[in-house]
Specification:
This protein is of the alpha+beta class and about 280 residues long. The protein is built from 8 helices and 17 strands. The strands form 3 sheets. It has an 8-stranded mixed β-sheet. Strands 11-12-13-14-15-16-17 form a 7-stranded mixed β-sheet. It has a two-stranded antiparallel sheet with strand order 7-8. Bound molecules: zinc ion.
Length: about 280
């Protein structure tokens, strides 16, 4: 259900479809999950590693789009954000939904690329002043100890001891809850500690899979194709196949930071690679 298209859409003359500033509501048991569209625009085929002309011609629409999303989950007395986009439209979207940044209890981070942690902090201040920030220990350590990245360090610093780390688990294991209703699955390859979050309410589940995929028209049928942003392309492809298989077998709907609006839907195995049906 598309619930609103804010001033960005109006300013751009967009009457329908998706645009930055668009919010989509998905109901998951007793929870509300909102896709918060941060940016949308033309995609670049150069990011597809090892894809030849024939493959691009076969799968890639001429006008293919690229999108950045974050997700907000509300319910059970909690407000949880999964990733923070670039730190742009996300704040307008939250405002439109009547959610003050101070009301966000937890921010779950899939990985520390700039289009996911951009909204955490600005000028040394935490932009979610009351939130605990959760990310995998491997991810935090890589960007703040092994290969020190100033933006990553600055994003976490204002949260001090409100940063909580964890070790993501394998699909199918008895999973440990980070906050009620949220567990963490290992999805390494895109980055060393890349994490997918499984959200549950009653028997309803949704896997918010971060950057498992960047170009859906190519990577659903050909999950073996990685992108240049995947730090370990072979591991990323292996993880992609494993998680696609897991969600298809268990019929778990998924949400993705670079899937196209509404960026939530279901995966099925069969035919060539995997098929995708977006929510309406
Ligand atoms: Zn990303």
């Amino acid at each position: 259900m598309k619930i609103l298209c804010m001033f960005v859409c109006i300013a751009a003359g967009v009457e329908a479809g998706f645009a930055a500033g668009t919010v989509y509501l998905y109901r998951l048991g007793a929870l509300e999950v909102y896709t918060l569209v941060e940016t949308t625009g033309p995609g670049r085929s150069q990011i597809l590693a090892g894809a030849d002309e024939a493959l691009l011609k076969r799968y890639l629409p001429a006008d293919f789009k690229s999108e950045i999303n974050a997700f907000l989950v509300r319910g059970g007395g909690r407000t949880v954000l999964v990733d923070t986009g670039l730190g742009g439209a996300i704040f307008d979207n939250l405002k439109e939904l009547g959610v003050s940044p101070a009301a966000v209890d937890a921010v779950l981070i899939t990985h520390m690329h700039g289009d996911h942690i951009g909204g955490l902090a600005k000028d040394g201040k935490a932009l979610f002043p009351n939130a605990l920030v959760y990310l995998s220990a491997a991810e935090r350590d890589y960007w703040t100890k092994t290969s020190v990245n100033a933006a990553a360090v600055a994003a976490l610093a204002p949260y001090g001891n409100r940063v909580r780390t964890f070790v993501p688990e394998e699909p199918g294991a008895a999973l440990t809850e980070l906050v009620p209703g949220f567990t963490a699955l290992a999805a390494y390859g895109h980055t060393p500690g890349h994490t997918a979050f499984l959200v549950s309410s009653g028997s309803a589940r949704l896997l918010i899979w971060g950057d498992l995929m960047h170009v859906q028209s190519v990577q659903f049928p050909r999950p073996d194709i990685s992108v240049t942003y995947d730090m370990d392309p072979a591991a990323a492809a292996e993880t992609r196949k494993k998680i696609l298989d897991y969600v298809a077998k268990n019929r778990i709907p998924v949400a993705g930071m670079h899937l196209l609006y509404p960026a939530i839907g279901t995966v099925r195995a069969g035919g060539e690679g995997y098929g995708w049906t977006a929510e309406k």
